[in-house]
Amino acid sequence: MSRISGVRRLKTSHGASGNVPEYGVECAKEIAVYMQQLNDWGPNVFKIHELSKGHALTSIAYSLLHQRGLLKTFEIPPHQLITYLLHLEHHYRENPYHNQIHAADVAQSMHVLISSPALKDVFTDIEVLAAIMAGAMHDVDHPGFTNQYLINSNSELAIMYNDESVLEQHHLAVAFKLLQESNCDFLSGLSKKQRQTFRKIVIDMVLATDMSKHMSLLADLKTMVEAKKVSGSHALELDKYNDRIQVLQSMIHLADLSNPTKPIELYRCWNERICEEYWRQGDREKDLGLEISPMCDRTNVTLEKSQVGFIDYIVHPIFETWADLVYPHAQNILDQLEENRNWYQARIPEETESARDEGVVDGGATSKQEKNISADHLSEEDIENV
After folding, report:
1. pTM for the complete prediction?
2. Residue 125 clears pLDDT 60, i.e. is over it
3. According to the UniProt entry, which residue ranges have a biased composition of type Basic and acidic residues (predicted)?
4. pLDDT band, very low/low/confident/very high, at 254 (cuts 50, 70, 90)
């Protein structure tokens, strides 16, 4: 396919000569304080976006790869990397949630997860490069609608990808097509085999961000915990590629779901954004006469209750399993998750709590929407709608 839907030419390109700014793009000097937190769980990516003048993804991804010495290892031309990242940014839409700030957040979360002492020296340099870039690429050109909506509305993307991981396949197509744009091939210094390895890892990881894969990823992670082996240095032994890619797939899924594990002020901001995006989809579904997807009806959702259910049924089980795998190095993440859950639990409206006991909400039977976001009622079908 010579033409990929959604790919647009960027008018400006990063010059091939001259000094490279410290963070890849010109930033306000105040950004240094926030960039020093890139090795921590939950830096303020919104502030970084502001202080980088709208370039959160480029500044964070460039800084992470530079910090890890990967530009030197793979002879990555800085100007080409920056040009690619700027093109990638340009192809993230201005959605409330699925935008370049989310991509920057996932890439940074991947960096922290892969830095766990339990994973020391487990992954090769090419796997680390691919993992961070997979985070940066994983939602490019996201339209702000779920896979299920695209399928139900007979969208061109659903037709093109035969209803299978529609968004994820599109993100990959756009991300790799951009490598062919002028001055964007930052992988030019890699051997053919290295490029093939990079591509395979990124594809395997991005496809794992399809929420319909959640239950199987969780089951595989639990199996790995039961069978895990550690070396004398307490690092996991993952000698086979299949084991390493399974962990990498779990990591990008964790990074993609990590909002509830971040400091409460960041979590609340992300929550407001995803709700607005879901509600826009619900409005569109209503206009088209389609059944409104779970969590997408702005008139029939208790936000606080939905978050408690999301944490209990989706986020906590997989992060708890991850913590078992890298024990004891993720306890701080679980602690923050529990704190955030309690924050939302304490704010569930009293009438909703009492109505739940009586099976009544707002004077009527508990709605399908409310059931779909309750920890006790979420089904795999509901998960696929996320």
Report:
1. 0.91
2. yes
3. 349-359, 368-380
4. very high
Is 310 part of any domain?
A: yes
* 102 belongs to an annotated ligand binding site: yes
148 is in an annotated binding site: no
Once rounded to an integer, what is the mean pLDDT over residues 123-132? 98
Percentage of the chain surpassing pLDDT 70?
A: 87
Domain contains 184: yes
Distance CA 287, CA 295 (A): 17
CATH classification of the domain holding 160: 1.10.1300.10
* Residues catalogued as catalytic: 98
Give the integer Cα–Cα distance in Å for 116 and 104. 19
To the question of whether residue 292 is assigned a binding role by annotation, the answer is: no
Question: What tokens were used for 147?
Answer: 């896979």
Residue 355 pLDDT: 53
* Contacts for 138 with CB less than 8 Å, ≥ 6 apart: 103, 106, 168, 171, 205, 206, 209, 252, 256
CB 135 within 8 A of CB 110: yes
Angle between helices 78-90 and 125-137 (to 10 degrees): 30
The annotation status of 256 as a binding-site residue, yes or no, is yes
Residue 132 in any domain: the answer is: yes
Residue 239 tokens, joined: 């000698």
Q: Is residue 307 part of a domain?
A: yes
